[in-house]
Structures are given as structure tokens and as C-alpha cells.
Amino acid sequence: MSENNHAYTLSDGTSILDLPKVSLHDHLDGGLRPATIIELGSEIGLELPASDADALGAWFAEKSNSGSLVEYLKTFDLTTAVMQTSAGLERVAREFVQDLGADGVVYGEIRWAPEQHLGSGLSLDQTVEAVQSGIEQGIADVRAAGRPIRVGQLVTAMRHNDRGLEIAELAVRHRDNGVVGFDIAGPEAGFLPSKHRAAFDYLATEFFPATVHAGEADGLDSIRSALLDGRALRLGHGVRIAEDIVIERQDDENTYVTLGTLAQWVKDREIALETSPTSNLQTGAIAAWGDELIDHPFDLLYQLGFRVTVNTDNRLMSGTTLTRELSILADAFAYDRTDLEVFQLNAAASAFLPLEEREELADIISAGFEGS
Fold first, then answer.
1. Cα separations (Å) of 105 from 53, 135, 325, 333?
2. Which residues form the Adenosine deaminase domain (predicted)?
3. Hey, what's the torsion of the CAs at 320, 325, 326, 329, to 10 degrees?
4. Which pLDDT value is given to residue 255?
5. What confidence score (pLDDT) does residue 3 get?
């Protein structure tokens, strides 16, 4: 990125970069460095739209601002192309963790779809092992630089394919080798989580946690299926849960609303919403409310007590970092350090970690916010 993270400060002068953060929704194939794509692409003869890293980064940002999730997803053809070998996966994962550490992330979950990385003959298990190797190298690099970090994998099945159960079994097979959860991703509309009910049934028998992309490119039926069929503990984006909230009236100080039964359930059960503000604008996820950040239902959901978290989704496509996402939310809704701490504590409480480790993570966050 050409932007300087150090420029992002709160009104009290606090550097957002220096605050400890938790990243729950961050795609491996959406977080490559443009220079790495160019270098790895040249090794396989991949034709790219630009040969300069800054220009390539700008191309990704431009193509990602279409307002359509389907068009947005097409940019991944280039990134996945250079992630078909163990070496490629390992390098991308290592750099990914390095970039998380540089952004002040103390705990991150990286989601990716192994079935998209078999083009050069790797097995599903080999892809997971390569990514884990890269993650462990990245963790060592970050810690050697004096910064704490932990990272887990979210193994993802593509919802428009028929490999859900196979990928769920893969995830469970590697639960002691870095994999902390399961996800489904890809085109949401027309591909309800119920299509992968067998996978989710299997995960339930193994007591293995799932997050499900829902409420981004499709509405309440998708969210309902994520909860009923997917037993989702978190909703990937989930912003369209706001469609189940009716604003009755507003005055200068208050907004009076009525929550539908689905929204009430998500709120009362503290099912985390993995919102990604910039991405939500790019893909049209908040089109029902507007096309600017101030129109995002994030603040409404936050004020109503939903467990909102802040994420990047795809750092390359959105030209962003977690520091930047927090900064633009703070600017739009006048959030202060206390608000940003709530978002991080929400994420810590929703991390796919044992309870004791989630509590330790919350302590790290609180200590970091007090000391910054």
C-alpha cells in the first residue's frame, strides 16, 4: 500500500497502528503483496495487467470497486494463479503474517480455500501443510521483531462447488496443525448454506466451529440458513441482518427501532458480525442503505448492542489495512479509543480459541489500549 499507516490517529492523538488488534475475516488470496504477484507470476509466465507493483495494486483497487461481489471475485483469478505450489503458498502465507504483525494484529485468523490450489498437483493436505509452514515462519519473523502474534487457519469450502464435506473433513484432520475453524465462501446468492448441510452436520459431530459468509451478497434467508443449517458461531460480514431492523422514528438524541426475530436472535446470542467496511462498499453489500461509509449500518448495529467486529476482508483488493478500517470508521462515526477497544474485545470473545486463551487475548488487548 502507498498509504502510511502511521498517519491514522484518533482525535486524542492515539496512533491506531500501535493499538493491539484482532483480525477474524481476512482472505489469504486477497492479501498478497503486488510485488510478490509480479515475481511469482513471472516464474509461471502469468500475464499481468501491470508490471509495476504500485500500478498493479491500483489495478486491483479499480477492478474491485464495481459494486458487485461477482465482479469483485474475478480479481482472485490472478492471486490464486501464483498460489498453486507449496513454495508459492508458503511464501504468500509467510508474508501475510508479516503484514498482519506490521499492522498491530496480535491474533489473526486466515481463511482460504484449499480446493482452489490444486492446479499443480498438490493434494488438499499438502496445501494446508504448506500454508501452515508459511504461517509458522511468519509468526517467527514477527516475534523476532519484538511483536506478539498468534495466527490460525480457517479452511474454506467454495459454496458453489460440491466438496463441502470433503473440505470439512480436511479441516478437522488438521485441527491439531493450525486449523481453528471452517467457512464457506464464494458467490452467495443462489447458494444457501443448506447446500452444504452434510458438511455442517459432520462439523457439529466433531465439535468444530464454523463461520459462514452470509448477509453480504444475499439477505435474510442466507443468514437464516447459516444459523440453522450451518450452526454458524459468526457471520461473515452479516451486515444485511439490518434488513430485519425497522426504524420506527428518530429524534435529535435517539433512534427507535423494532428488531425482527432473526435480528433479535443474532443480537441476543452474541453471534459476531465480521464486518469489513471498505469491502462492503465495494461489493454493494450495503446498497440498500447507500453508497458511502456514513450509510453503513455498522453504527446502528453497534449502538443496538450487536457484537460487531471490524475486518479487512481482502487487503489487496480493498487497498486497506485493519488500521485504516478502524480509522475510517472513527472518522465517519466519531469513535474514540474506547469504541475501538470494544471492537477488538468483541473479536477476541468470538475468536475460535479455547475460553482461557480468549480471556488471555482480551487481557492483552486491554493492557495494550491502556498503555498506548
1. 24, 14, 13, 23
2. 20-365
3. 150
4. 84
5. 47
- Please give the span between the terminal C-alpha atoms of the chain, in angstroms, as a whole number: 24
Topology of 5-371 in CATH? TIM Barrel (3.20.20)
Whole-number Å distance between alpha carbons of 153 and 112: 8
> Any idea which residue has 489469504 for its cell?
28
Condensed to tens digits (0 to 9), the pLDDT of residues 195-219 reads 999 999 999 999 999 999 999 999 9
Tens of pLDDT, residue by residue over 126-137, are: 999 999 999 999
Q: How far is CA 313 from the centre of its chain?
A: 4
- The label of the residue with cell 499492522 reads 103
CA-closest candidate to residue 136, choices 154, 121, 149: 149
Residue 216 appears among annotated catalytic residues? yes
Which pLDDT belongs to residue 68? 73
Residue stretches of the chain with pLDDT short of 70: 1-6, 69, 372
pTM above 0.85, yes or no: yes
Smallest CA-to-CA distance from 28 within 106, 120, 135 is with 135
For residue 294 the three cell numbers come to: 456514513
Please choose, from the candidates 346, 322, 345, the residue with its C-alpha nearest in 3D space to the C-alpha of residue 99: 322
Structural domain spans, the chain = 5-371
For residue 242, which of 196, 292, 290, 193 has the smallest C-alpha distance?
Answer: 290
Other Cβ atoms within 10 Å of 360 Cβ, number = 15
What's the pLDDT at 5? 54
Catalytic residue among 90, 216, 274, 325: 216
